[in-house]
Amino acid sequence: MSDLIRLSAADLADKIHKREVSAVEVAQAHLDRIAEVDGAVHAFLHVNTEGALAAAAQVDEQIAVGEVASPLAGVPLALKDVLTTVDEPTTVGSKILENWLPPYDATVTARLRAAGVVILGKTNMDEFAMGSSTENSAYGPTHNPWDLERIPGGSGGGSSASLAAFEAPLAIGTDTGGSIRQPGAVTGTVGAKPTYGTVSRYGLVAFSSSLDQAGPCARTVLDAALLHEVIAGYDPMDSTSINAPVRPVVEAARQGATGDLTGVKVGVVREFRGEGYQQGVIDSFDAAVQQLRELGAEVVEVSCPHFKYALGAYYLIAPSEASSNLARFDAMRYGLRVSGDGELSAEQVMSLTREAGFGPEVKRRIILGTYALSAGYYDAYYGSAQKVRTLISRDFAAAFEQVDVLVAPTTPTTAFKIGERIDDPLAMYLNDLCTIPSNMAGNAAMSVPCGLAADTGLPVGLQVMAPALADERMYRVAAAYEVARDAAQGGPLINRVPELEAIQR
C-alpha cells in the first residue's frame, strides 16, 4: 500500500502545495488502490481515470505558477452517484438511469471542480438513496472494509467504504434520514450533515426534497470541515438555499483540536438508549461521554420526548415526497424506456419502464407515499406527520436552550451481515432511529468514530448535534473528542482497518 493513501486530506494538500509530491502522483496512488481492492469492496460504480488524472495535472500546472484554488486543491475525492456530473454517468444506483450522462454539473460538483478537488469517480448507493445498507443498489452491494461480509451502511455506503478502504481521502454523501452519518458510524469514518439549506441541492437527484442534504465524508474531523467549507454557500439555483455566510467550521475544528471544552455544555439525549441498542454501542458511547467530561465539558441529561415518533413520521413524509419526485421518470424524456411488443400507449410504456427500472424498496416507498397523499388520507397521515415534525423541532429548540450540543449513539448497532435484514424492512428502518430527528428539524449533526464495540470488534459512532446555522459547534466538540480518543486508543481508529492487499479483484 502506498504511504500516500494513508495520509489525511489536510496532509496531502500540504505536500501537494509545497510540491513535495504532485497531484498526479497522489491521484494515481488512489487509482491504483481502487484497482487493487474495489473488486472486493465495490465502493465505486464508475471510475474516471482519465478525467481524474487530467484534473490533477491541471492543479499541478496552477501550483507551478503560484496559484492554489483552495486548501484542498489536488486532493482526490469519491462522489456519491446522486450528484450530476457532465463527464460521468449519474445512475443514482438505479437501472432506470443506467448510463445516463447528465447535461449539467450539480452545484456541489461544480464547486469541487472550481476548488481543484480531483474527482476519482462515482460511488455506489442504495437506489435513489432509499436504504440503510447499500444492498438496494441495482448494481450489487458494497462491502464494509472492516468485515467484507457486513454492510457499510446506507444509502451512502460506497462513499464511506471508499474512505475506510483507503481508496479516497475524501467523499461526498447525502443525508435524508442518516445516509451520511450512519455509514460513517459503521465504517469508522467521519460524516457530517450540514444545516439544511446551507449546501446546494441543485443537481442532487431528489428523494425527499425537504430532507435531502449533501455533506462531507472524511477520515478526520478537520478534513470534513475543510470539505464542508468548499461545498457550502448560497446558491440562487436552489430555492431552499439559505443566503447566509458559510459557518467557520475549519476554525472550530482547529480550536477543538486543542482538546479544551471548558465552558461547553453537552446534553445526552435520554431517549436514545434502551431496548434495541447493542450493549457494545452503549458502552462505547458512555466511554466517549466520559472523555468529553475529562476535556472540561459539562454533561447533563436532556429529554426530547417526541423523538420516539420521528421514525414513523419520517416514513410518511419521505415516501410522500419521493412519490412526487420520482414521477419524473416517465420513460419519455431520458433514462430507461421499455416499449414492449406492439403499439402501446404512453401510460403502458411508463408502467412497463417503472416496473423494470425501479427496485423493490423504491416501489415500496412510492406506494406508501402515494397512499399517504391520497384523497381522504392526506390529513390523517401526511398532515399528522408534519405536526410531529413540528414537535420534534420544538424538542430541539428546548434542548438547545439548555445545552450547546446534543450527543447520542449514531446507530443502535454496529454493522450487520449482508442479507441479514434485507427481507425485513422494519428492522432495516430502525438503523436510522438516532439520525432521523436531525433531518426532520433541519439542524446540523455529524458522526465521529468512538472506538470499537467490545462485543463485535466493529466501529461505533458518536453523534454530535448542533442547532441550525451553528454547525461550527459540532465540529469543535467532535475535533476535541477525536484528539482525546486517539490519545487514549493509541492512534487513529481508521488505522486498525484490516489490510486489504491480499484481496484479489
Can you put this structure into words, describing what you see?
By secondary structure, the protein is α/β, with parallel strands linked by helices. It has one domain (3-307, 389-492): Amidase signature (AS) enzymes (Alpha-Beta Complex), CATH 3.90.1300. The chain is 39% helix and 12% strand. The chain contains 16 helices and eleven strands. Strands 1-3-2-4-6-5-10-11-9-7-8 form an eleven-stranded mixed beta sheet, with helices on both faces. Helix 2 runs antiparallel to helix 3 (49-64). The longest helix has 24 residues, at 379-402. The two termini are 15 Å apart. The model has no long low-confidence stretch (mean pLDDT 96).
